[in-house]
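Q: Structure for this?
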Amino acid sequence: MIRFVKHYFEGITDVEIYPIISLLLFFIVFITMLIHVLRIPKKNIEKISNLPLEGDENINNYE
Amino acid sequence: MEKEQFYYDNKIVKLFLIATIAWGIVGMTVGLMVAFLFNFPNYMEGISWLSFGRLRPLHTNAVIFAFVGNGFFVGMYYSMQRLLKTRMFSDTLSKIHFWGWQLIIVAAAITLPLGLTSSKEYAELEWPIDIAITLIWVVMGINMIGTIIKRRQRHIYVAIWFYIATFVTIAVLHIFNNLELPVSAFKSYSVYAGVQDAMVQWWYGHNAVAFFLTTPILGLMYYFVPKAANRPVYSYRLSIVHFWSLIFIYIWAGPHHLLYTALPEWAQNLGTVFSIMLIFPSWGGMINGLLTLRGAWDKVRESAVLKFFVVAITGYGMSTFEGPMLSFKSLNAIGHYTDWIVAHVHIGTLAWNGFLVAGMLYWLATKLWKTELYSTKLANAHFWIGTLGILFYSIPLYVAGFTQALMWKDFNPDGTLVYGNFLETVTQILPMYAMRAFGGTLYLTGFILLAYNIYKTAKAGSTVEDELVEAAPLKVISKRRLAGEGWHSWLERRTVLFTILTTVAILIGGAIEIIPLIVVPSNIPKITSVKPYTPLELEGRDIYIREGCNNCHSQMIRPFRSEVERYGEYSKAGEFVYDRPFLWGSKRTGPDLHRIGGKYNDNWHFNHMFDPRLTSPGSMMPRYPWLLTDDLDVSDTEAKMKGLVTLGTPYTQFEIDKALFLLRNQAEEVEKNLRQDPEFVKNYGDSNMETKEIVALIAYLQRLGTDIKKGETAQN
């Protein structure tokens, strides 16, 4: 099996770097995002998480 | 600041709601029809457009794009207006989106039973409809982004991020997977061949699940679960982490559909690693959804809506646990091609999608028609019948999947297969199929109760098509980050930038996985004895595609002892270089066909197509009698070959010019073979069989997998 698939990427120089780049990329993006998320003030978080619950009841409501 | 008055557009929400219910019933009914075919293969005797291979794509397309798709649009149009405190960007675009989408569904419902299909799973629709989908999708996108831009609410709530990700990713996936060269009004060939086509297709197929059945529904979850529970989402921070890591990781996981195939090991491993990582964001989202109900569990007792949501989110957790598990190669070796996968996807669709949409519809009905639900009792009945339906559907299929996989791999001490006849492994699981059909019946029954309940609610209520509201307009502020403004908060008010970053996140995975495969085709090991199909075989292959044979038969022998023993030499990447589209299949309801060529004589195939039970007693394959009576259409043969030459198949000018002559010659050969059987001469002696479709199909089947036997395997 391996014998047949090895050829695929031999033509690309330094193909091993692909998965490493992608993992690093993901890791960096993830950590940066995590730090930012943790630093959002609690007050703001509370405000935005309540957005769906804000009175969207209309003024011509049937009640 | 002074408040502005404006109206929410409820009419568009209502239209989509009605469409969701109608198409839900249609899609599930077709599903039930195909489920019964497993136990009663003859009940649609002789009607070509109701045969399994044509109905199964209709079922999948209907439930995915018509039922869940419309369900998403219901929630999207309702929640976006309210979260952004504005009417939709354009009523006209909303209407075009609605009617365009329904027309596309109707077109699918007509063309798929007619056998007009590109055969690529969940992307079966032919090229004119593909173009229509692209246009309507862009209309929806403009309407979505336009609405976000004219909002009166600074912050864009997390649900809408999921909607944006859905829009951009499905656009990218749809376009790249459907790149095809039209050869006639309803026939096209994929621009990719073989391994590349498989890779692009499953990059699409997997992410259609991710971005059509997961992200939109997560968006709905983040809006409607807090609404129904009347409390904010458990952790908004978690939802931000959930969003970015989910869309970033999901896009990589496609190759787990191709483990142990001729796909490069490198891509397979990448798919496995990312699939396993995927459990973290998925479960993060599930926990976020479930814990939103913290302190409100007493409400679950009374509220049918919350019951549906709880089972939906639990189903999401189950299927996103199972997905990564199935991506481990050892488990995939058991699950792939079996009913385990069918059970797995139905936990996702019936529980996660179906129940979340059902809960949302019940909740919305009361809001849209300004009244109480007609019957909470009936909604609860739907919940219990539906839940039982899910269990009756999935548990028997899990058992069936394991049973069959173990039977396939069972060896005698002398090294022969215990169940050398594939059919033995099928008849063994017939009772499970019957139970599955029962489960499906329950689920559909529940859904019909929903339709009735909502109809009665609508009749009792009053309708407000344009709902008057008021909100303060947004103050114009700098496009730059304000003092003290968080990085992500800033990003969230830059709609277009946000959309672009989302696109980048999903493009990285796709690009790194696919581009190397496309741009270095010379790296696919060439097998010199593999030649293009003859004109007759090409027509036969297109009949194979038209009848949807790939829905039940794979053409990919994995390098396992059990498969090599059963089917022959395992499949090599170089054997598929002329396969446009690839036909590897994803499920073995019947045996693999990659090495079927030469295994039986032409008469066997002839009789088998007329009635599979003549040659294989107990078989559940449908009959294909029309292949024996319908004339082979050769009007496009030359155009097809020319099209394939454009794509790179090395037909010579001579072969194209003489296409029909070559085709007739080979057809006569097949007829001559058939006439060696006196039974054939007696029954069909005068019927001019060489001009019928069956001859082309036999020629194709007899060619399958035989090329590498003709010469040495040469690798460059």
